[in-house]
């Protein structure tokens, strides 16, 4: 008994020591002229890999180890003057304001005649420079994932996980050396009304080649529940699994060397890039280049899903001096006749994919900092099954329940490039399944940097939690 008490005492002291050796910083970042919240502003400790971003309310929380208390905290956003202060002098009672900062486009373009001057030429140069700007050796990144699904009324699904990403580096992109592991799960609530027969039909068509089948011809009572669950999980994974996002075309920069990449050798066939302006961040000039459609549609070629026939929109931000890509805002809109009909019918929108990717510079290389991915997803058909108008009249469809959107956010909080640690990690079992609940480790999450929810999200999550508790009871 005494040994047991001693063990728990040591465990408690260890946890307490870890907790008290951290400094938690909280505040709100506002536009210096409009006083509106600045979303996605970077908040980090200079010369380290520790950082976070502000939420849609402009708020952030950052846990900083005590050993960095005299280091410099930086708050920055593209197009704004940065704010810097030692960590131990940070005052959370005073709101932070960032003032706009823009360079002269004409002045920048006249500096050197040999520099590319059009948006297309600048982007082609940026792709050429990837081998110099991305990490050239293997590394690990620790991160926080928030996966959420909602219809037009409420949250229906929430998963929050700690993850580890392994990347072998730019030199081996063609080999696809990229893996992800789910380390811990903080929240996992699933209250979706899943149309399992529709999913089960797709599942069977994928497993049995050439089978002709329609969901309306299936009888739910004749199908094992376990089979339906497998089908739902299969569909979740192929649409929103981490492997799909990280290995696919939408990982625009990392996978630019892959065959038929969206930002590959033939990107000007599907994209046009126009130089918009030159902005400033941390006293460095940044090109802002707008993205528009070109001669051909952009296709994702997703297996088992018609994910083709899109036109791109968005912007790319890259450093003027190194052509390193700092941020991408990217959308794919239904453009072909077939895709427009499909998108409107299934999702009630023409915007099929919305992506934001930001990078942070560490030891002269650009590492993933944040990923935001949003896509519509048909989960609940949302029709009154006993209503005779259902098959003929769209007014019988409950659009607020039928149309779902899925959002995945990943904040990368730590970079590990120690060769021994990286090599040792490869001997572990890697599991990228974000949809399987895992035991909750309270001590782990005390000191782990996460994304701060907005006020709206926080309330929606509370509501989901209450409904989930009632559902479990």
DSSP helical segment count: 13
Strand arrangement, major sheet: 10-9-8-17-16-15-14-13-12-11
Mean pLDDT across the residues is: 85
Main sheet attributes: strand count, strand direction, barrel closure: 10 strands, antiparallel
Give the H and E element order. Answer: HEEEEEEEHHHEEEHHHHEEEEHEEHEHHH
Instruction: Please identify the structural class as seen in this structure.
Output: alpha+beta
Q: How far apart are the termini? A: 36 Å
Task: Write down how many β-strands occur, each being a DSSP E stretch of 2 or more residues.
Answer: 17
If you compute it from the alpha carbons, what radius of gyration comes out, rounded to the nearest whole angstrom? 24 Å
The poorly predicted ranges are 1-20, 386-392
Give the percentage of residues in beta strands: 25-35%
Judging from the principal axes of the Cα atoms, what is the shape?
globular
Overall description:
This protein has 473 residues and is of the alpha+beta class. The protein folds into 2 domains: 2-101, Carboxypeptidase-like, regulatory domain (Immunoglobulin-like, Sandwich), CATH 2.60.40.1120; 119-440, no CATH class. It has 13 helices and 17 strands. The strands form 3 sheets. It has a 10-stranded antiparallel beta sheet, sandwiched between helices. Strands 3-2-5-6 form a 4-stranded antiparallel beta sheet, with no helix packed on it. Strand 2 and strand 3 form a beta hairpin. The longest helix has 19 residues, at 2-20. Residues 1-20 and 386-392 have low confidence and may be disordered.
